[in-house]
Specification:
Layout (H helix, E strand, L loop, with lengths): L4 H6 L21 H10 L8 H14 L4 H8 L4 H19 L12
């Protein structure tokens, strides 16, 4: 799976070229341990889960112009319909932004 250069640097020093970054994980819940440490170190008080990180990643990708099919593949979804949930969040933000500026046309004296 491709990752950004910045993310690659955050992973630390590379070991063997064929070695996985997170190899030998005992179970999927293992990832919660380092996430909790990162959240605490960042001073974030809110409870965040791995799912929150995935949701934020997908939403940011879509909001920054990555197409939904690419985001779907990056998340490992087998069906793009699963990814459309994240697109709805982006659409809601666009709708809110479209109505953010209101001009009082009724009282315009120009």
């Amino acid at each position: 799976m491709p990752i950004s250069e910045q993310a690659f640097k955050l992973c630390g020093e590379p070991r063997q070229p064929e070695q996985l970054v997170f190899e030998g994980l005992p179970n999927p819940s293992w990832i919660s341990r380092p996430l909790r440490a990162w959240i605490e170190k960042a001073g974030i008080q809110k409870h965040l889960s791995f799912h929150c990180f995935r949701h934020t990643f997908a939403t940011l990708q879509l909001a920054n112009g990555t197409d939904i099919y690419t985001v779907s593949k990056m998340l490992g979804h087998t069906n793009v319909k699963t990814t459309q949930v994240y697109a709805k969040v982006v659409d809601e933000k666009k709708n809110k932004a479209a109505n953010a500026i209101q001009i009082d046309i009724e009282n315009d004296k120009t």
